[in-house]
Amino acid sequence: MSETQSNSRQVILDRLKGCVVDAPELPTIDPARVVQFDDRLQQFQETLASVGGEAHLVDTPSEIHEKLQAIEVFQSARRIASTVPEAVTATVDLATIDDPHALSTLDWTIVRGEFGVAENGAIWIDGKTLPHRVMIFIAQYLAIVISRSDLLNNMHEAYARIGAPGPGFGVFVSGPSKTADIEQSLVLGAHGCRKLQVFLLP
Amino acid sequence: MTVALFIPCYIDQFFPDVAIATLTLLERLGVEVEYPAGQTCCGQPMANTGCDADTAPVAKQWVKRFASYDAVVCPSGSCTSMIRNHYADYFGPNDTEFQHLRENTYELCEFVVDRLGVRSIPGTFNRPVSIHSSCHGLRELRLGKCSENMTPREDKMRMLLESLDGIEIKPITRVDECCGFGGTFAVAERETSVAMGIDRVTDHITSGSEVMIAGDMSCLMHMGGLIRRRNMPMSVKHIAEVLAEAMQSDSSGSDRSAPAIASR
Amino acid sequence: MTSLTSTLPIVDHPNAAREFVTNEPRSHWHDDSLWFVRSKRDKQAQSIPEWEYLREQASTIKTHTIAKLPEYLQQFEANATRLGAVVHWAADAEEHNRIVLDLLRRNDTLRIVKSKSMLTEECGLNEYLIESGIEVVDTDLGERIVQLRGETPSHIVLPAIHIKKEEVGDTFHEHLGTRAGESDPQVLTEAARGHLRGKFLSGEVGITGVNFAIADTGGLVVCTNEGNADLGVSLPRIHIACMGIEKLVPRFQDLSVFTRLLARSATGQPITSYTSHFHGPRDENSELHIVLVDNGRSKIRDSKTFRDSLHCIRCGACMNTCPVYRRSGGHSYRATVPGPIGSVLGPAKNAKAHKSLPFACSLCGSCTDVCPVKIPLHHQLLAWRKVLVGKRLVAWNKRMAMKAASFLFRNPPLFAAAGYLGRVALKVLPKSLAHNRFNTWAKDRDLPEPPKKSFHEWYAKNRPSGSQTVSREEQS
Q1: Residue at C446 is within a domain
Q2: In this predicted model, what pLDDT tens digit does every residue of B50-60 receive, in sequence order?
Q3: Stretch C89-106: mean pLDDT, rounded?
Q4: Which residues does C106 contact at the CB level (< 8 Å), separation at least 6?
Q5: In chain C, which residues have their Cβ closer than 8 Å to the Cβ of A183?
Q6: Structural domain count, chain B
Q7: d(CA A168, CA A157)
Q8: pLDDT digits (tens, 9 = 90+) for C418-433
Q9: Residue C149, domain member (yes or no)
Q10: Count of domains forming chain C
């Protein structure tokens, strides 16, 4: 760190400390006041559909494979990364890849999500489960597998469940990559996945 | 209860009929109303231009004029908001005259509904109408629920209008968008102001309404001016005119000479 | 009143807005697009029974954070450093740019990919880096469109909201080789996807903004719909995150409040497609640099009146709801951040340059009610007017007109006489003269029909026993 930088640190902190401001107490969210759903599964499915994702109720990992096989762009996929081998066998061995750029031609990625959030259709993916974090962003298509018993009502429950995050990466994914930057016309598949399949196991 | 009528400067000068209708309405509702002499303006034009030094003496004069009344009623949400929400800059927190007026100055519909407890008006108004919710009445006085804010509130003007016989309130698409008057904004930002005004008028006409009703004459002066210039098929009326006219039609029909409702 | 206001001078925003707002089809199209976004926002807000409760919580958290900002910045720095990030401090835009360039030079970087960051726009980072020979690629589709067109964003969330699809088609035809005349958003987006994939793969450093930084964990949150921030920082070894010092939240748990409000307010989505949490660099071979930028924020914090404007989470809802912004377009503000919040922040940066912005507002108050962190925007715009008058930055004739009005209103007999003269003049003058070209009001609007009598004249005649002649005040 150069001398001027460390100097700016002091300058900024001194400026801020020069003006003492009374602070109100930090509030605590009252769980009784935030939205709860009678049927979290139904709410999650509806919200996911509204953000452009597709939900599938499945009972076994092999059913996931069957459902994927019915999707044309999966049938024709050549490069598949998977961290859910019981459902989909990978064609790309992630363990042998050092440089994430090598994943630029991924067709499909199938990963596990930790839990889903009914109010917004988001799924929390813990970066520790990903050999390369880019795999969920660079693949043309993405599938996420979660358990129906891991559906929470809202983001307050979601952050409480994550607790204290350790070093690393984590992301809420809600639907496929999208943009409406041209005349507010919604287009799915801006830079990341073109479609998102979510498989809900028991 | 001695109630003072505060008639904003431009209503006094350009729209005396609105002031007369306000007085008539209140009298018909059994309110003893006085119109204190020597009143002019609340000072809002200067305040909204940022000229505090020019506003302060006008505000002080206003408070002096009205301090001895139990309540003040004003047929303008904007001017009422000036007193309730913006006068504090010009008075100390312990100024009892100002604090009294801050708590007891009402916009007309607010006075009728909240202070008199009157929730329906006996009368008839046989026209398809639409409501323009003036911004300061809506967002500064909270006379109704605004579309951005999720707090439920009852809409006082709508409630009174809906109580009239024969009235048909047409729905507009943007229920509470600004008309673009905005005081000096109307002149300083002429093009934008005019575009906003025409959009509002068009929305009201498209709804099938023949009369646009508002609680603020300033909005109606702006939109009325646009309507007349373009010969658009719409007229504008202040809520006081509609209610007074409706009550007139009712009392002439039913031979009721006494005030319909006594004040609390 | 009309005769007084008709002499007001023409100021900058109205001039800058004129071309856009008087192009009626375009202005209406722009207005409708943004109203559509606002309507989507309303639906989302309505779907959350505790919406107003959430706004209240968000506001309190931000008030608390800004008050204790020096403590939280140090806590954040300590935690981020512990996670392996390098924290830099920049007092102003110039220092911010220099820090970023130094980092790039140290790593022999020639090509960077950027995701949307209003802070880097504010600092003019792109121009600075390009002048230094770096290839800078904005990867957000809207930002890429304005970058290729040599423009600036006209909205902080929807940078290309002012551009028609046919114009995007022309730009892409020229730069990306799409078919001439192509204007299908699907096709154009696909072309941009292909074009930017190449840029992502060749980017040597990824630069992002920051939506939230968490004091108690040292982490960062970046929200996008396109996934461009994630692609941009998941491929190269180095991630530089640039943030204003006001972006902090105290606790990880506080993110729940803000992630619920941000996208709903911004675009009417329940949450952005990607809400990414970065705690330290990707791995032991990677670097995460965080640049904390003051650039005038501490000065705003010093002001009791304007401090709350630092609550802003850059959702853009105040722009979408502002009837002036929707009709005059974002570029009419000539500021990095346009619309209501920009009209508060602009004068804080340079009062003289942005003196017309607090007046580019009808004081309708919609921005205040739509703001997810409850910044009293229209009250702050009014407060700015007072400051500008105090600094004598409001035109002399405007101030004199208000002085004259004040004088008139303090002298009831004079007021009555002036009103009388005004009404008589309106009556006796031919319409062409009363509506002359110097009367700005009357260019588009008829003046009211002048009544014979003012109300106070009517009252004196019709209620002779009333208090018109003897006021209560004089009685007592």
Answers
A1: yes
A2: 999 999 999 99
A3: 98
A4: none
A5: 33, 164-165, 185
A6: 2
A7: 21
A8: 888 888 777 777 776 6
A9: no
A10: 2
